[in-house]
Design goal:
Strand content: 35-45%
Helix content: 10-25%
Largest sheet: 6 strands, antiparallel
Shape: globular
Distance between the termini: 52 Å
Length: 479
């Protein structure tokens, strides 16, 4: 049973047959990727990779409860499959009862394509993109710019089988494009601008359009203005909004909130303590704008797995929930906190509905204006800052979700509806939850690539936000 001759579904079935545990979950992930890299208006590298990862979860029922063991390995051969299963069983026997233990998700449900070959990507995904990239090189060269960046496309076909009867499969394409333009500034000071896109198949991204956008930003940077730290009206583009709200999402687990450890916890006052979610801020208005933050596994262009795929247990996931169906979920509805992520275990602890995490995130606020239109309406009552993206975001205080980070690749000054120059970079201190309460306008929602979290979370759609007093806590040099 070599990798070349054995399909993923056969490996899943064989691992389940080998299992001697009381319960077993097997996930086979088939990976393929293709990439292009370029520097100085010329391609430098390209390549295609293939791989397989196998995760086996064994559960053992004991007198004190159910224990679990998880082992994940790459490039598992036929001779290594049984030792892998035995290793998971041994890990379960040596472990204490699993806190999140639940019955495995049952049913005889099977994906229609479970026995079919995995989806794969190849260099052909760049068939239309690569010529356009060459044209963008010529376009940039004629304008005195140099382009640097990379394009990556990956497909993961995940095959999930359980001893409870599930046989599910999901194909996840993920594409990212990042483009930097550089040109000489006054004296020896370089100018740099960045743009990024997320895509499923590279048919909807145009590097020539991105280069034109970057050329405009480099033009703005020809005039440099020094500004001090302080609070400024600020336009946050969709990529910056995504980075902040993804971190907020990662920090919004229901159990932590109910136990008083996060910004979504309500101070204990003894009132209505028996109410489900009483220790949380559920039902509280977080924004005066009609903002809805939601996830939907079938959202157009942001499609993701419609069932739980958990390779390990943690605050926001449980291996026992593997295969649990996912439904559209509003986390914030019309400005009001509506749901917090739960596993079946944490839902039982908090009395809240089961609401597993989903691998996409959308913010909608009813706005229709583009970022350019928001710029044209800004800076009439004082200076407004227009950001490009955020970088090096770190948590300062979990109780308020205060984050700190840096601006990068262009902070621009808007005066009387026009960008009049580029200012210095800043370190910021902001809580995304507090920021939502102070946002005064949301623009048009559009698909975006998070700059900071793009290696981990790419399926996001956000509007630009206008915030009256974004806190630039100090000036940052050399970024």
């Amino acid at each position: 049973m070599s990798r070349r001759t054995t399909t993923p579904h056969e490996i899943v079935e064989r691992a389940l047959e080998l299992s001697r545990a009381d319960g077993c979950v097997v996930i086979a992930d088939e990976h393929s990727s293709a990439n292009l890299r370029w520097a100085g208006n010329a391609l430098t590298t390209n390549g295609v990779t293939r791989g397989r990862t196998l995760t086996v979860v064994a559960t053992v029922d004991g007198g004190q409860g159910t224990a679990s063991g998880v082992v994940t390995r790459s490039a598992v051969t036929a001779d290594e499959l049984e030792p892998l299963v035995r290793a998971a069983e041994a890990a379960a026997r040596e472990a204490g009862p699993a806190e999140d233990a639940q019955p495995l998700v049952g049913g005889e449900k099977a994906s229609a394509d479970f026995t079919e070959a995995p989806a794969e990507t190849s260099s052909e995904v760049f068939a239309a993109f690569a010529p356009a990239l060459g044209e963008s090189f010529r376009q940039a060269r004629s304008g005195g710019r140099e382009l640097y960046g990379f394009a990556h496309h990956g497909v993961v076909s995940s095959y999930l089988g359980t001893s409870a009867g599930l046989r599910l499969r999901h194909d996840q394409p993920t594409g990212t494009l990042e483009l930097n333009a550089k040109s000489a500034g006054t004296g020896a000071e370089p100018r740099s601008a960045w743009a990024g896109r997320a895509t499923r198949d590279f048919t909807d991204v145009d590097p020539r359009e991105m280069d034109a956008e970057l050329s405009r930003r480099l033009g703005w940077a020809e005039r440099r203005i020094e500004l001090p730290a302080g609070r400024y009206e600020t336009l946050l583009p969709p990529t910056a909004v995504a980075d902040l709200l993804i971190y907020q999402m990662w920090s919004s687990g229901a159990r932590d909130a109910a136990e008083g450890r996060t910004v979504f916890s309500r101070p204990a006052d003894g009132s209505d303590a028996a109410r489900p979610g009483a220790g949380t801020r559920l039902g509280e208005r977080l924004s005066e704008l009609p903002l809805t933050l939601r996830s939907d596994p079938r959202a157009a262009g942001l499609e993701c797995a419609p069932f739980v795929l958990a390779h390990s247990s943690g605050d926001d996931a449980s291996i026992f929930d593997n295969g649990l169906p996912l439904a559209p979920t509003d986390w914030i509805r019309e400005g009001v906190l509506h749901r917090l992520p739960t596993t079946r275990h944490s839902a039982g602890l908090t009395g809240l509905p089961v609401a597993p995490a989903i691998d996409n995130l959308l913010l909608e606020g009813g706005g229709s204006r583009s970022l350019d239109e928001m710029v044209a309406a800004a800076g009439h009552d004082g200076p407004t800052l227009l950001l490009t993206c955020l970088w090096y975001i770190r948590e300062v205080d979990p109780a308020t979700l205060l984050l700190t980070g840096l601006t990068r690749d262009g902070v621009h000054l808007v005066e009387n509806g026009e960008v009049t120059g580029e200012v210095n970079n800043f370190r910021f201190n902001e809580s995304p939850v507090d920021l939502l309460s102070r946002a005064v306008e949301a623009g048009r929602t559009e698909r975006t690539l998070p700059r900071e979290w793009g290696d981990y979370f790419t399926r996001a759609a956000m509007p630009a936000l206008r915030v009256a007093d974004f806190h630039m806590s100090s000036v940052s040099r050399g970024v």
